[in-house]
Amino acid sequence: MTRRGFNLWFGAASVVALAGALVAYWQKHKPGYPTKIIAQAGEIPVGGSKIFTYPADDRPCFLLRPAEDTYIAFSRLCTHHTCPVFYQPADHIFTCPCHGGIFSASNGAVLDGPPPKPLPQLILERRGNNIVATGFLQT
Ligand code: FES
Fold it and tell me: Residues of 46-58 as b/e, b for ≥16 C-beta within 10 angstroms?
């Protein structure tokens, strides 16, 4: 191998190694979602709902209790232009007043209108009497 060839090979290998180290560092230190108590079990009646914020105070979400031991939560911000959606318990849907978007309250799926993606669904855990949000499901 010539000196020039070695230098090219060594330079390319160094760039690949640096990129790998940066990716590994980012994966280890990327910001995660907070763990936050959003309600007490039994705080809302079966069929009821509650508005809370997660992961920050400017991010409203809905917590629903469709059955005795079932809790489910979604972002309240429409995936079209972030208008706040409203829960319609009689139809178990979320409606967006801005452009008529409609989402399923079972899984956040878009049922009608212009929203390009489902409502983000939160990951919930039951810890004793607390309902805790720990992040968002991947869609
Ligand atoms: S902002 Fe909700 S449908 Fe456009």
Answer: eeebbebebbeee
